[in-house]
């Protein structure tokens, strides 16, 4: 049990660090037209910290509730696929400065969170509940991403320097 906690917690910390490192808030971002209902910039880091802690908790609860290797394999696949899409969104939005591409990638990110929620919930009701904040935040992020794209397009041809 302790191993699962350390592994899940460590992965959450690494993902949080990668997300932060690939999300430079520059004048490019500040100059984007954003909706009034966007949360303040300072909220995103703490929100992701809580969300990743919840996801790590869900992973541990799912791992500990799994009764066979097939269920654990499903958990590893679901969280591994989600990690790939989690890591992919920020570089598209902030580094490539392509919120339009990030919005397309968001579809896959959202689907991976939803699938992970279902995989965890199959073995642990409480674990499934711990995934709900992640699913809610990524859903909100998609709406925000779309609002930014609509207010600022086109992005093609803009210099990302």
From TrEMBL:
GO terms for cellular component: membrane. Pfam families: TspO_MBR. Its main location: membrane. The keyword Membrane applies. GO terms for biological process: tetrapyrrole metabolic process. It comes from the Bacteria. The chain crosses the membrane at residues 43-63, 75-95, 101-121, 128-148. Keywords: Membrane, Transmembrane, Transmembrane helix. It is a multi-pass membrane protein. Belongs to the TspO/BZRP family. PANTHER family: PERIPHERAL-TYPE BENZODIAZEPINE RECEPTOR, TRANSLOCATOR PROTEIN. This is Tryptophan-rich sensory protein. It comes from Glacieibacterium frigidum.
């Amino acid at each position: 049990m302790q191993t699962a906690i350390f592994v899940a917690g460590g992965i959450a910390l690494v993902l949080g660090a990668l997300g932060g490192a690939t999300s430079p808030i520059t004048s490019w971002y500040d100059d984007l037209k954003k909706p009034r209902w966007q949360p303040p910039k300072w909220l995103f880091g703490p929100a992701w910290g809580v969300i990743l802690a919840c996801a790590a908790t869900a992973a541990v609860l799912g791992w500990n509730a799994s009764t066979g290797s097939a269920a654990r394999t499903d958990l590893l696949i679901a969280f591994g696929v989600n990690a790939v899409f989690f890591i992919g969104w920020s570089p598209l939005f902030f580094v490539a400065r392509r919120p339009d591409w990030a919005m397309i990638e968001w579809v896959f990110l959202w689907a991976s969170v939803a699938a992970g929620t279902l995989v965890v919930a199959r073995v642990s009701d409480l674990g499934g509940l711990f995934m709900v904040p992640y699913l809610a935040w990524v859903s909100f992020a998609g709406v925000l991403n779309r609002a930014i794209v609509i207010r600022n397009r086109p992005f093609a041809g803009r210099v990302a320097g």
